[in-house]
Amino acid sequence: MNNIIEEENQLLQSIFDIIEIGKTFRFSAGAGSGKTYALIQCLRYLLKTKVVNLSKNKQQIICITYTNVAVNEIKERLGNTELVIVSTIHEMLWDIIQRYQSELVSIHLDKLKKELEKINNELENNPDNKLGVFSSLSSDERDSYISLVKNSKNTYYQKRNSKSDEFKNSYTKYHEEYGAEAVKKWQVNYGKFKEVAKRIYKKERYETAIDKINNQEKGYTQVSYDNIFNADRLDKMKFSHNTLIEYSERMVSDYPILRRIIIDKYPYIFVDEYQDAHSLVIKIMKNLHDYSEENNKKWLVGYFGDSAQTIYDDGVGSEIDTLHPNVEVIYKKYNRRSQKKIIDVANIIRNDRIEQVSIFDDKVNGDVRFYYVNNRNEDACNILITKRFLSEFQSSLGKDSEIDCLVLTNRLMAEMNGFGEVYESFREAENIYYDDLNTKLLSHELEKLEPIIRVIYKLLSSYLSIKDDNTTFYDIFGEKGRFISFHDAHSFVKSLKEINPTSLGELLFSISDYYLSIPHSSCLDIFVNRFLGAKQDEISDYGSIDSLVRGGLRDLMIIRDHDDILNDLQIDKVNQILNISIDIWSKWVRHIKKEQSGKIRYHTYHGTKGEEYQNVAIIMEHSFGDGYHGRNKFKKFFEFRGSDEKTRIEALKDENVRNKIINTQNLVYVACSRAETNLWLIYLDDISDIKHGIESIFSQIEVWDKVD
């Protein structure tokens, strides 16, 4: 044990030595290795050895990480210091570039022009027949069509969430001016009519914004990053997370003076969980690194993470080797989390140069069991099997033991956690690809939620906080609460507590009605802004908060290329979402906040990243959900692992196959490596074709015969 600790200390010292000479490096270590500990020790080393120079030169250290939870953890463990800025990548980038408004507005103008070009191209060419009859009209007919759309804007926004008959009837007042036959022809499919209208309105807004920027009109000489509502509002001079990264990369790439300023101000930048960073973030760091070397400036970036834990599609993963090559790489083999049997299984799964061993002499046991269902009764329900499996697991541990159960399907996780109705309602959202549903509806990281779903989360979270007697005014109003009198705040909270809605729709209607009846309430303005953000500007367009949110939901549900009956069906789907009870929605909110209670807690594989649990149960099946890309995902992985070396080498020559295998391997690795002491797995599908592949990892597997 003492030798291992000494070796670990030497490893840390080697990182300190690299930092001392100002060399960029990457610290790569497996799950449970203490990466955050190493990161904090590096920060402490700099605070101990460089504090005088940093203070004298008015310099700071930047530490960027992936989530606000990680930010808070690092701050708590590091302690208070003005010399270290710990923030998410988005906060850090915005803090750096926001002062260069002239350059940002120029980049923003370019973006607007490119987006306008896309809109014009769509209106001209009608890709995928999204726009119905519009593209087949003569030039004069198009002009008339566009004129109708522009002149009926108020009608459009007031009725866009109505069913087809009501929507079309609202346009009869335009029949005399444009001709009843023409209007009916243009609206033969009202879903496609609205697709044209949306583009015309956006084109109009973008053209207006471009003119105002060029004329340097008030309100158009600055841009801002909207961290509340994660969607671009380019015409409002606001942009979202991904666009912030895009603008930042462009700024660093186009302006050498900015590279110099960043390097001079922040000589040390640490990137936590580098594998989850966007490729443009790595390009920014590479650009800064190159500039520092070309100009003989002492500067470094230190990456901390593990490519084998890349499970998000937008994470750079192992591509960091290509995007930022020729850096010093330090590997760590020690594991502080798990028992030996779990570590051994995790090593086999990841199958790379990092082969972990426990840092503790007494972590030599652990329990790993892999079960499979054989000759399952067709009527046997996966949920019933899962519950019996978990009951057996819990009995083996003791009735008071806690188990964290990882399930593959979002549907199963949602149902087990009590908000299956929420999940089922969004499964039919045609503008969320099924493969993205896990992230856009269920992510614990708010910036990854679909924008309108994020609005719903923030609304519900705020409302539930108000209903909680332990909530403070600061929790409700934030920093802006300083400008509200105690009397006004108390009256506002009292009014909201008296609403008592039974469904999300009732809550929306009540808030919306309150907003219309008291339009100048500072309390309500702050409350609404906290969940709507920049979208608050659109309330007047839609007429109410209720209509705005309904519109956002309908944009998710809409079927663009179908007839009026199916478009009407989408309105019914929106109503289905809004009719879900507050009680069920509150369970979804608790899931997002990671506040599940009970002896058995349910998670998706993705939702456990960065977590550790004493006892882990993993439910496996052939497929990852019902989507095409997830079909037979795990079956194909175990088929690959069970094949001979020649077959595996040949398969990996196909980039698409290689990416899928690596992604699945990473997902299995992340899931299994969450366990500290006990790891039980059960495979619910027939394993006869993949048994060899499973045994290549788990060695001994057993039949689970407690199905009936």
UniProtKB/TrEMBL annotation:
It holds the Pfam family UvrD-helicase. It comes from the Bacteria. This is DNA 3'-5' helicase II. The keyword Hydrolase applies. The keyword Hydrolase applies. Transmembrane segments: none annotated. It comes from Morganella morganii. GO terms for molecular function: 3'-5' DNA helicase activity; ATP binding; DNA binding; hydrolase activity. Keywords: ATP-binding, Coiled coil, DNA-binding, Helicase, Hydrolase, Nucleotide-binding. Residues 102-129 form a coiled coil. Gene3D superfamilies: 1.10.10.160, P-loop containing nucleotide triphosphate hydrolases (3.40.50.300). InterPro entries: DExx_box_DNA_helicase_dom_sf (IPR013986), DNA_helicase_UvrD/REP (IPR000212), P-loop_NTPase (IPR027417), UvrD-like_ATP-bd (IPR014016). Residues 8-352 form the UvrD-like helicase ATP-binding domain.
